[in-house]
């Protein structure tokens, strides 16, 4: 039994290693990346994987945090890697979004922004008995409205990057909205609907999926890819200790999928394995 467990761990490690190698190759032509909600959880792991997996010291990795001074792990990472740039961003403040867009402009300059990963999100847990209008609006503002407003503010930088290439993908310009399988209307039925009865979270992710699809329609003419990606149920502060995926397993797969996106994935809703999910 122990031998089988060790063998499983070895297979999982080798798979993650292969995915990381694939990700490094895919992100080679992506010069500028911005990750929101990078102070902890998946956002922090995305930044860490990008910087440790890249041999290009000129790659600009922008990590946002609502309170950078309190993001100690991110600060330590940036101290070791000078190409990580931490900027302040409170995603529910329009003033903060506009200031952050100005800061990003100064960093990327003529390169523009190749890849925006809208990762910041919260989970306001409330079922039918406990949900309130305030809880719904709180979750909607962070998870649904903020990615739209952030993308709008950064659109000139995305267009600047997109103007330098052809096709679709992170080599040109892409908006990745980190969404959730729990936002799927089709899957929230039968046995699947008996768990995670989180009205604010589920509906905010459903709304984000529609925002993603709407933006995909509007950004297509500029050659900017837009899609939604489910990172899996991950052992983070939000996911909890019962989640089956480690952050490393999730992020290696997520970045591999992002790195391989093309025109065919524009406007899509994908699982971290790369498989399409039902809306």
UniProtKB/TrEMBL annotation:
It comes from Salvelinus namaycush. It comes from the Eukaryota. This is C-factor isoform X1. SUPFAM superfamilies: NAD(P)-binding Rossmann-fold domains. Belongs to the short-chain dehydrogenases/reductases (SDR) family. GO terms for cellular component: cytoplasm. One of its GO terms (molecular function) is oxidoreductase activity. Coiled coil: none annotated. The gene is si:dkey-12e7.4. InterPro entries: Fungal_SecMetab_SDRs, NAD(P)-bd_dom_sf, SDR_fam. Pfam families: adh_short.
């Amino acid at each position: 039994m122990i031998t089988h467990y060790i063998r499983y761990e070895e297979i999982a490690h080798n798979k993650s290693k292969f995915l990381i190698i694939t990700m490094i190759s895919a992100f080679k032509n992506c010069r500028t990346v911005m990750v929101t909600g990078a102070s902890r959880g998946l956002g922090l792991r995305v930044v860490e994987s990008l910087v440790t997996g890249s041999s290009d010291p000129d790659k600009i990795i922008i990590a946002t945090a609502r309170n950078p001074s309190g993001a100690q792990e991110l600060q330590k990472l940036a101290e070791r890697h000078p190409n990580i740039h931490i900027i302040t961003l409170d995603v529910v403040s329009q003033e903060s979004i506009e200031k952050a867009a100005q800061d990003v402009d100064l960093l990327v300059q003529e390169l523009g922004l190749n890849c925006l990963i809208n990762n910041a999100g919260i989970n306001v847990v409330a079922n039918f008995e406990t949900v309130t209008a305030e809880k719904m609006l709180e979750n909607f503002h962070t998870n649904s409205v903020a990615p739209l407003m952030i993308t709008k503010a950064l659109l000139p930088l995305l267009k600047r990057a997109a103007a330098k290439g052809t096709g679709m993908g992170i080599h040109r310009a892409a908006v990745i909205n980190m969404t959730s399988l729990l936002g799927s209307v089709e899957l929230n039925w039968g046995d699947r609907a008996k768990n995670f009865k989180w009205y604010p979270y589920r509906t905010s992710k459903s709304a984000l999926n529609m925002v993603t699809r709407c933006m995909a329609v509007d950004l297509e003419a500029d050659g900017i890819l837009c899609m939604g990606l489910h990172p899996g149920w991950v052992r983070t502060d939000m996911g909890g200790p019962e989640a089956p995926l480690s952050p490393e397993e999730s992020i290696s797969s997520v970045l591999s999928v992002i790195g391989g996106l093309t025109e065919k994935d524009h406007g899509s809703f994908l699982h971290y394995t790369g498989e399409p999910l039902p809306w």
